[in-house]
Structure formats: C-alpha cells, structure tokens
Amino acid sequence: MIAPSPTLATAATRFRVAHSPDWERLDRLVGRIERRSVKVLDDDDLLALPSLYRTTLSSLSVARETSLDRALIAYLEQLCTRAYFQIYGVQTSAWGQLKRFFAVGWPRAIQELWRETLASFALGVVGTFVAYYLVRHDPSWFYLFTPEGMTAGRDPSASAAFLRSTLYDTGKHDGLATFATYLFQHNAQLAIFSFALGFAFAVPTALLVTYNGLSLGAFVAVFAGKGLTFNVVGWLMIHGTTELFAITLAGAAGFRIGLAIAFPGRATRMDAAVAAGRSAAVAMAGTVVMLSVAGMLEGIGRQVVTNDAARYAIGLTMLAGWLLYFYWPRNWDHAPA
After folding, report:
1. Which of 208, 212, 211, 228 is nearest to 220 (CA)?
2. Which of 224-228, 244-248, 299-303, 333-337 comes out lowest in average pLDDT?
3. φ/ψ of residue 173, rounded to 5
4. 99 phi and psi, to 5 degrees?
C-alpha cells in the first residue's frame, strides 16, 4: 500500500483543524435532538443548525474531491445523513402522527373519493330498493338475498308479534345477540373484501356493495310486510348509519383502485394502482375505526335503547357527525402538520 504523501497528510490535518469545530457542534446538536427532541435547543442553536449542516455538507464535498482519508469521509457522510433527517425529516411523535391522521389524512382521503363514494352509495341504494320491491311482491325472493345465518327466524313466515319482540324484548331473545354479532362480522368482512377485491377492475366491489343492499332491502321488507317498517328502520339506524357508511366508503376505496387499473391513462397499471392505493388505503384504515364505533353503538343500543325516537336520534346524529367530519370545507394548505 502506498502511504499518503506528506503534503496530502498536512492538507488533511489543516482541513480538520479548520472545520472540526463546526462538525463537532453539529454532531452535538444532532445528538441532543435524537436523544430528546428539537425543543431542547435554544434559539441560537436552532438558527445555527441549518448553517452548520450546509458547512458540513460543503466539507464532505471537498473531502471527496481531494481524496482525503476514508475515515473522515465516512464520518462526514454519516453526520450529514443524521443532520438531514433531523432538519428535513418528519419530526412527529406517534401521537402527533395519529392526530394528523384524524385531523387531515382521513377526511382528506374521503373527500378525494367523493365520486367513488357516490357510485358506491348509488349501487347500495339500488340493491336495497330492488330487493325490497321483489320480497314485498314475492316473499320467496328473501331466501335468495339473505344468508341463512342472518335470519334467526326473521323471515316471511314469522309472525308480527315475534318480529316486534326481536326489536324490543332484548332480554328475552338471546338469538338477537347472535344475530347482531353475525351481522357485524358479515358487514366487516364485506367492507374488507369490497376494498381488497377492487384490483379486479372493481367488478367484485360493485357486486359486493350491491349484494349488501339486496340483503338490507330483503330484511326490511320482511318487517314492512308486518307493519313494522318504522320500527325496524329505527333499530337499524343506531349502528346502521355508521356501519353502512363504512361499507360505502370501503366500496369507494375499492372503486378507486379498480378504476385506476382499468383506466391508467399515460401511467402503467402498476404505477396507477400504487398512486390510487395511497388515498384508498388511508380511507380504508379509517373505515376500520368506523366499524369499531358501529360495533359499540350496536352493542349498547341493542341492550339499552328501546325507544324508537331515541334510536332515530342516535342514528341521525351519528350520520350528521360523520358527514360534517368528512365533508366540512377545509383549507388543506393550512392544515396542522
């Protein structure tokens, strides 16, 4: 191995002596931020931090160009990398990121999906009215639209007294708890699959959203045939406005991915899917929160609230709350960081 010339060694020593105070100060400041947070720095240190970073970055460039020793270059590279992430990186805690998700990320993602949300909602509504009409005119359609596990005796052959008792006499019908649990699991799975199967050009998503509407319409039609329309809608609304909204949004997220793959424009299908998947995934993450809220509302509402007016009030209040939360106009440029 050829030893460095005395001239190069002398230049390296002088270079270190001239600039090492700045490197060492930057190293100390970055270390303090890494151990605690940027809040520990006083005003002088905060003002000096960008300047020290640029000076160190310039020193790294000189060290590379003049082929100074590798140890020095490695040290400067590491220091510049650490400083870069502390100056330009996202300096938020897990709590801060969670707060930003609820304040900005989730509602913004939902607003960006408004077209897909309308399409998903329309399919659900059409399915609901079609099934309602068919079952009211021919009750045999009910068994085609409704899974066996969701009936628990609530079918066209049930009496009005039995159907009414399932809506109000919660302590006397353990089957209601089983039905409610099955219904929640069914809707949660449907929401997840509506999103996950969106990659297949959104066709399975459209079918699942429509199918959910068909099941809902058939279920309501059974109670409507016994004069219990107002009653069953109130029973469903406690958790239904949140749960069905969540399914609609999950379908919208699936549509976003599927349509991006079907019509990628100038981008490749993969790039279009990745770009669409960012906002869709954020929306879907929030949908899980909505389903959890719906589960709690259903559990409490089923056992505690038996007054129709109260049921409607809870359901409509939740719906209004979600709509305001998602669609209230915001200035995203001034949203909290």
Report:
1. 228
2. 333-337
3. -130, 95
4. -65, -40
Q: CB-based contacts of 314: which residues, under 8 Å, 6+ apart?
A: 237, 238, 297, 301, 305
Q: Where are the alpha helices (DSSP H) in 172-228?
A: 174-196, 203-224
pLDDT the model gives residue 178: 57
Residue 222 has a pLDDT of: 95
Instruction: Quote the CA–CA distance of 217 and 214 in Å, as a whole number.
Output: 5
> For the CA atoms of 43, 45, 47, 53, what is the dihedral angle to 10 degrees?
-160
Q: How far is CA 286 from CA 75, 180, 290, in A?
A: 43, 22, 7
In this prediction, residues 226-247 reach a mean pLDDT of 94
pLDDT score of 1:
43
User: Are 156 and 222 in contact, with CB atoms under 8 Å apart?
Assistant: yes
How far is Cα 57 from Cα 52, in angstroms, rounded to an integer?
Answer: 8
DSSP calls for 91-143: ---HHHHHHHIIIIIHHHHHHHTHHHHHHHHHHHHHHHHHHHHHHHH-GGGHH
Q: What pLDDT score was predicted for residue 2?
A: 44
